Amino acid sequence: MGTPKTEFRIDIEACAKQLPTSIAILVRRMRLEGDVPASFASVLGRLEIVGSMTATELSELEHVRHQSITQTVKALEAKGWVQITVNPDDRRQRLVSLAPAGRDILTDQRRRRSEWLMVQMDTLLTEQERTLLAAATPLLERLAMGGPAD
Amino acid sequence: MGTPKTEFRIDIEACAKQLPTSIAILVRRMRLEGDVPASFASVLGRLEIVGSMTATELSELEHVRHQSITQTVKALEAKGWVQITVNPDDRRQRLVSLAPAGRDILTDQRRRRSEWLMVQMDTLLTEQERTLLAAATPLLERLAMGGPAD
DNA sequence: TATTGTTATACTCTATAACTATA
DNA sequence: TATAGTTATAGAGTATAACAATA
């Protein structure tokens, strides 16, 4: 049916050009909404789901260097939001887990941040558009993580 | 028609919870792909489209404080990537515009960054999913900018 | 007074390099 | 040697506060 492929390519290119700017600004704005640094909230959120993780596992999931995670975890420990225990089976590993205070902070932070986003979505998008965005969110996650097996 | 509303709400909530983490990681990874700081590239891109802008206009579009833009623009000027001229009609204003060297840098940077993203999209998404993401991108832009009239 | 912009300073976040400890 | 993690240091990016210049 003619040349839908050309139009399609243009869409994808336009997407690849626009997406970086849009999400960078969105991240910037959400950072201001939170009362807790985004890096902290992200780590706490993972610990809540998984229970406990090593620094290396965290760094892989967050796509940062392991040295960076060390600093984040150190700051979280200083706040009393995580606990660190040495893995007795491999004493090189430190297992990071959510402390009670961390759980409280996480609950509060997540409510704030996702509430802000939900207000934006309610205000700026139609119901149909919200559904579309919800459908696209797992795709962004896949792009962020580099695929199901990465 | 039962309770589609409940399911819908769950989708939107899941979206609002997942989206911040995913796009934060995506921004992080794209920053590593670029050879130019993301804040620089973003400002250069706007100047290419609009021609010249004041610091205040830039700060509003980028959703940062005007003090922050001052520093970005100062760095861009030091690199020779933008030119700054005083607006003769209002001598408080400095008009920032793209210098030839800035245009070269921008072209190169944009090719790198959007190429990386396009490779990810080609590798990790189906054609249908790419179309879905392309459709959702303007919605993310709207959320980022706070609406058509903001 | 209001607007536009700068300077000074500090914090968050992440990186690279060099190191220690355990396997 | 390889893996897990730390410490030291630096740079990008952005914020707040106080200031100067122009309208």
UniProtKB/TrEMBL annotation, chains A, B:
Q: Which GO terms describe its molecular function?
A: DNA-binding transcription factor activity
Q: Indicate the segments forming the HTH marR-type domain, all copies.
A: 5-145
What InterPro entries does the record tag this protein with? HTH-type_Bedaq_tolerance, HTH_MarR-typ, WH-like_DNA-bd_sf, WH_DNA-bd_sf
Pfam families xref list: MarR_2
Q: Which domain of life, per UniProt?
A: Bacteria
Question: How is this protein named in the record?
Answer: MarR family transcriptional regulator
Organism whose genome encodes this protein: Amycolatopsis pithecellobii
Q: What is the lineage of its organism?
A: Bacteria, Bacillati, Actinomycetota, Actinomycetes, Pseudonocardiales
